[in-house]
Design a protein that fits this description.
The complex is a heterodimer of chains A (317) and B (111).
Chain A: E1 4-15, E2 18-29, E3 33-37, H1 44-51, E4 59-64, E5 67-68, H2 73-78, E6 80-83, H3 95-105, H4 110-123, H5 139-151, E7 157-161, H6 169-186, E8 189-194, H7 197-203, E9 206-211, E10 214-219, H8 221-228, E11 232-238, H9 242-249, E12 254-260, E13 263-268, H10 275-283, E14 287-294, H11 298-316
Parallel strand pairs in A: 3-8, 3-9, 6-7, 7-8
Antiparallel strand pairs in A: 1-2, 1-4, 4-5, 9-10, 11-13, 11-14, 12-13
Helix pairs in contact in A: 3-4, 8-11
Chain B: H1 2-18, H2 20-45, H3 48-51, H4 53-80, H5 84-88, H6 94-110
């Protein structure tokens, strides 16, 4: 397998006057989990469709597992598994028949098919209800079955579009564990579209943030956090007077300081030692209860990038 | 390719068996067809119905038109139920899906 699983260069797609994807250039190393974050309608699902060769780009190029997404899409699909926007299950068929059908599609020998169906349904806690029509199932159960279908033929590359949507927290956590294991043991590359920032932070080595079809940031969760926000210090206590705020703002390592009720938030210029600031607060008569030093969360990064992009869009208009 | 066609046929047959209303609709359609082409037209045309070239040509086209319409319906159904995209994202070629549906529907219509 190529060391780069996915590479796109200026990949773009228009639907009439709508620019669904605009000059997307990313590289996803083989054996990694790439998280694609963005609000609804940002272009995430269009990207998966383009990478699978279900849509042709208006401009640019994508190479997946070393194959061109336009001319060699059948080769890409041969080695990929996909859980798309809709679960794609045949509701009248049972879980067993749904998997049996896709097992036949992937040309898995009959004996191996039976073992794999049992293994997957047992792991996902669905074995007991394997003969029921899928239409009787809950959304979460259907999502698990769709996930099993995507993994059935042990693909080298998995495209997952919101895989944990509709799952209860324990099932979602188990699915994340399974994904982590899969990547570690079998070296599967995962392209994950998600709204769940905690999920992205936990699973993904690389993250791309997309807004209105444009990639607005790319990097590891750590890089993105560092890029978007300086560390901050949260102080809980009493005595946050105007004099205290002014004294803090005069310090070179402090970007800003603001208080609300019994909470003081200090934005720091860089990763500095906070002990002198705590001493200063105590010397100024502040009764300090608790001090927490933190980095921006991925959620804050995401919101700041998306809002920034939205505001720049408004300014352009 | 043959295996892919057989896989599609396997799925189509399973779905048809489980779709009771579909079977009922199929039987009703068949009865209407027999009533029109097997009873009404022969009664109106008499023996000419069996020997004129136009009739033979029409009989030859009827199954083809019916299969086409049933296959088109089947694709529309897959699209509505959001199963088509997942099917297209698998290793199956468009031709295998089309032929599989066509071959499976032909004997049903022929019935």
């Amino acid at each position: 397998m190529a060391s780069t699983a996915i590479k796109t260069t200026n990949l773009s797609r228009e639907f009439g006057a709508i620019q669904a994807l605009n000059m997307l250039s990313i590289e996803v190393p083989a054996g990694s989990v790439f998280g694609f974050l963005g609000p609804n309608g940002a272009g995430k699902t269009t990207t998966i469709r383009l990478l699978l060769g279900l849509l042709e780009p208006s401009q640019g190029k994508a190479t997946v597992l070393g194959y061109d997404s336009v001319n060699q899409a059948d080769q890409i699909r041969l080695q990929s598994g996909a859980l798309l926007e809709h679960n794609g299950l045949y509701e009248r068929l049972s879980a067993e028949n749904n998997l049996e059908f896709y097992g036949r599609v992937w040309r898995i020998p009959a004996a191996e098919r039976q073992v794999r169906i049992r293994e997957l349904l047992t792991n996902l806690g669905l074995w007991e209800r394997r003969e029921e029509p899928v239409s009787n199932w809950s959304r979460g159960m259907k999502q698990k079955l769709a996930m099993a279908r995507a993994l059935f033929h042990r693909p080298a590359l998995l495209f997952l579009d919101e895989p944990t949507a509709g799952l209860d927290p324990s099932s979602a956590a188990r699915l994340r564990d399974d994904l982590e294991k899969l990547v570690e043991i079998e070296g599967v590359t995962v392209f994950l579209n998600t709204h769940n920032l905690a999920e992205a932070e936990r699973l993904c080595q690389q993250i791309g943030i997309i807004r209105n079809g444009r990639l607005v940031a790319k990097g590891s969760p750590r890089q993105l956090r560092a890029q978007a926000g300086n560390p901050q210090m949260e102080v809980t206590g009493l005595g946050f007077t105007g004099q205290v705020i002014r004294a803090l703002q005069d310090r070179p390592e402090v970007v800003s300081a603001a208080h609300h009720n019994h909470h003081l938030t200090i934005h720091l210029r860089e990763s500095v030692d906070t002990a002198p600031l705590v001493s200063l607060l105590v010397n100024l008569g502040v009764q300090v209860d608790e001090v927490i030093k933190s980095q921006s969360s991925l959620e804050e990064v995401f919101l700041s990038l998306v809002n920034e992009e939205e505001n720049s869009g408004i300014n352009h208009d | 390719m043959i295996n892919d066609i057989l896989s599609i046929m396997w799925k189509e047959i399973r779905e048809l068996i489980l779709q009771r209303s579909g079977l009922r609709g199929g039987w009703i359609g068949l009865l209407i067809l027999i009533a029109v082409f097997g009873v009404l037209f022969p009664l109106q045309s008499g023996p000419d119905w069996l020997v004129t070239p136009t009739t033979i040509l029409m009989w030859a086209w009827v199954p083809f038109i019916l299969v086409n319409s049933v296959v088109a319906d089947s694709f529309a159904g897959e699209r509505e139920r959001h199963t088509l995209e997942t099917l297209l994202a698998s290793r199956l070629s468009d031709q295998a899906i089309l032929i599989g549906k066509f071959v499976q529907q032909s004997p049903m219509v022929g019935e």
